[in-house]
Amino acid sequence: MNKNNTSTTQTHTRRTFLTRFWLLLGLAALAELVWVAVSFVKPKKQKQTAATPSIITAGPVDSFDLGSVTAFPRGRFYLARLENGGFLALSRECTHLGCTVPWVEEENRFVCPCHASTFDIKGVVTNPPAPRPLDIFPVTIENDVVMVDVSEAVERKRFEVGQVVRGY
Ligand code: FES
After folding, report:
1. Does 85 score more than 50 pLDDT?
2. Mean pLDDT for the chain?
3. Beta strands across the sheet bearing 145-149
4. Is the CB of 163 under 6 A from ligand 1?
5. Nearest CA residue ID for atom 1, ligand 1
6. pTM of the predicted model as reported, rounded to 2 decimal places
7. How remote is the CA of residue 124 from the centroid of ligand 1, in Å?
8. What is the DSSP letter of 16?
């Protein structure tokens, strides 16, 4: 083998090594880019914390007067006890633009501070612009104790008697 052939072979080997090195480096960079992109797009799991249980124990049936409204700030709802003894758990979010609606005891109605919508004790609109009644949360009564499932508010177009939960 002459000197020229040896030099050519060494150059070829070095070039092959560098090509493979850059190829590996490129693949590592691509893998990292894909990993970052997937991490960014993948939705994170929502943690259910102890501070936000989905079932709120409101209390014994008899602890709520007829025709009363009790606020449960932790569950973001009002528990209304109607004159017939039935219960409704009303969302405190106005159905117009979502402002928190306070219960005004002296006026016996909910009055939205944002655009003056009002709702009666059943959450029914008595003054627009709110387009529909306050949302409700499912109520159950077990052993004379009222429980409210606040995991998902239920939209309604109108008040219906079937929405009222009574303990017998
Ligand atoms: S947000 Fe309540 S009336 Fe507009």
Report:
1. yes
2. 86
3. 55-60, 145-149, 139-142
4. no
5. 97
6. 0.70
7. 14
8. H
Instruction: Please tell me the residue having the least CA distance from ligand 1 atom 3.
Output: 115
| Mean of pLDDT values over 113-129 | 98
The yes-or-no verdict on residue 153 having pLDDT over 80 is yes
Cβ-contact 139, 59 below 8 angstroms: no
Pick the residue whose CA is nearest to atom 4 on ligand 1.
Answer: 115
pLDDT of residue 50: 52
Distance of alpha carbon 60 from the chain centroid: 27
Burial 2-31 (b: 16+ CB within 10 A, else e): eeeeeeeeeeeeeeeeeeeeeeeeeeeeee
pLDDT for residue 5: 60
Index of the ligand 1 atom closest to the CA of residue 116: 3
Q: pLDDT (tens digit, 9 = 90+) per residue, 25-81?
A: 777 777 776 665 544 444 343 344 456 679 999 999 999 999 999 999 988 999 999
Other beta carbons within 10 Å of 114: 14
* Strands laid side by side in the 103-104 sheet: 103-104, 109-111, 118-119, 125-127
111 Cα–ligand 1 center, Å: 9
C-alpha span between 156 and 124 (Å, rounded): 10
